[in-house]
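input
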Amino acid sequence: MADLVKEWENEKTVLDLLKAAQIEYTVFRHQPVFTTAERPVLIDSGDVVELPGLSSKNLFLKNTKNNTFFLVSVTQDKRVDLKALSKILGTARFSFGKPEELFELLRLQPGSVSPFGLIFDTDNKVSFVMDEDFLSATKIQFHPMRNDMSLVLSPTDFIAFMRQINHQPQIIRIPI
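output
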């Protein structure tokens, strides 16, 4: 039950901050989605739907050599070459961050990784990297720190919000 309360508080925090920043978004409530292969089933209608905009896949990565962290957002169907990405970012090879580190830094659980978790990274320990493919879309989707909801907003508004929380994304072509 404590995890559910934390998830609700996280989602409410995200929505409150978006409203305060006057960012336009649409919320879709759906059954939990654990992989990018799953399609949301809307709670209200029970319909399986394709939500508007580009869907995201978010990776919480760690450079084990110097203990630095990265949150990488790519389009849902993109497979990421982590070795090539580490070279582009000028860092040692990546591994996936541990669940404890994910929770400590971003208040997130595996399966609910989202750039919105960066609102809790007030010490800027996590670098945010975003695939440039998102910029070509009119709308993009991210979970609001829980996998039973999706927020749809414009890339411009999303980037503006990330700037407001002091996590300007490094926008690059993510290698596949």
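quick obs: Residues 2-172 form a domain with the YbaK protein fold (CATH 3.90.960.10).
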